[in-house]
Amino acid sequence: MADYSAARLPGHQAEGGYYTFEVHVRAPDAKSGGAGARRRRIAGAVAGVCVAAVCLIGATSRPAGPVGLAEGGGVSNQMLFGSRHRTTFLDQLKTDGNFPPAVHSAMDFTVDPCTNFFQYACGTWQKKAVIPAEQGGIAKSWDTAEDKAYAALHQLMLAEYPSGSPDRKVHDWFKSCMDLKTVQEKKAAPLKPWLASVEAIDSHDKLWDTLVLFQLWSIPTMIKLSVSADEKEPLKHDLFLEPSGLVLPDSSYYDTEDDDDAKKHVAALHKYLKSITMLAGYSEEEAHASADRTIEVEKMLAQFQDDEPWVSIEDSYMHYNKSQLEAHSPNIPWDKYFGGLSAGCKESGLECLSTLGDKNNLVMDAPYFYQKLSEAFGNHTADYWKPYLRTHVIYNLSPLLSDAFLNATFKLDAELDGVEDQPARWHKCVAAVQHGLPGLTDQLYVKHHFPASAKKKAMTMMEQLRQAFISNLKNVKWMDEKTRAAAMHKAESIDFNIGSPPRGAPLWGSDN
């Protein structure tokens, strides 16, 4: 599926809780509207990228002449006040501003930056940008960086390596994914072990064994786990529990009572789920029933997300220990769930979730969702969830299966996001290997494309930024001394992690 966070409707809140906007890029006579129409959309996030790029001009060198930078990278008084006419100043920026070529070519110097800074910073790029047929949206800087990284990984995965070496494992996985003849011949066969685990569910114990298995293999379900810095103590890390479980981009796509577009989206999803379930070997009747139940469950999960009460930022992250979590959502066997994940890690030679227990390091940003999810598990038999898990395992593994599965997924993407073509197979396979062997893939990339000298330069730059920030803190007038001391301590405590772990991180090389 396309990355919808890069192509959101104006003012629309994505699942992650942030807001984006879209810019349509189409021919003047192109028809607008309709879920099936070609929608060329550009991420609003590019505005920030362009602004940042413009603000960083001349950070390492100063041009000769009246337009220059002050010592330390600031804009000089000569630059700000030396010109008698503001228009002259803006004209000089166009010719003497020392912008990097990629930034200069994106800017629209016919626009007054004080009237519309986005157009000034990115207007020319916006006019000329063409979204590739296989994408639903693009972000100027992020997509370019990702494309370069994928192209580099593609070449590394194509290369031959000695038998038994970690790099050979990356190559073999990629080669297996690219073996289209075998993929076509196997059809739905690779799904059989996963579907067998679903069909064997006849109790809540087996239901949770399957949910643990899916989590270990990164097959999304209604429970989403992530590790991130604590909101108030950034040097500490928490385990975040977030709402999840939807195929469509967010909960608003399921509002079929009040939204005609949502009705079309859900109908398209039902048709798709039925199609891929039949491709997996189920009868039309079974596939239809599975699609019905999956839509029912996803509508329920979407409603839980929509009904999450609003809370202030201060209270938005609820910290729990494991006992409190069990009391909050008693029909979810957290001890069994986390214990299964920990055991799965140990089987792969890893240690995970070892600090869970009495510590308040579990965070729910959607406590109502998990409370209602717990009630749903209590109100339904294990058998109720089987069709949902069945369609989800097929859906999440289908991008790497035969053309029949890919074509079905493409039809849904075209309906929802207006894509006109499928991504190249190699691109899917690079992503699959990177997802399945993250440590080995990262090491291979760093070894060939991120030398120690590059890391040293980046670390030096970051340290200079730190010292400039600390120097500025010393002169901030609105801070009292206690706040200033705390801010400086925090700045001095930041640990830079650039490009790769600074030392042998335990996850590296553990892709068994």
TrEMBL record:
InterPro entries on file: Peptidase_M13, Peptidase_M13_dom_2, Peptidase_M13_N
Pfam families, A to Z: Peptidase_M13_N
CDD domains, sorted: M13 (cd08662)
Entry-linked Gene3D superfamilies: Neutral endopeptidase , domain2
Top-level taxonomic group: Eukaryota
GO MF, any single term: metalloendopeptidase activity
Coiled-coil parts of chain: none
Residue ranges occupied by any Peptidase M13 N-terminal domain in the UniProt entry: 113-501
SUPFAM superfamilies on file: Metalloproteases ('zincins'), catalytic domain (SSF55486)
GO BP: protein processing
PANTHER family, sorted: GH26575P-RELATED (PTHR11733:SF241), ZINC METALLOPROTEASE FAMILY M13 NEPRILYSIN-RELATED (PTHR11733)
Official protein name in the record: Peptidase M13 N-terminal domain-containing protein
Organism name: Hemiselmis andersenii
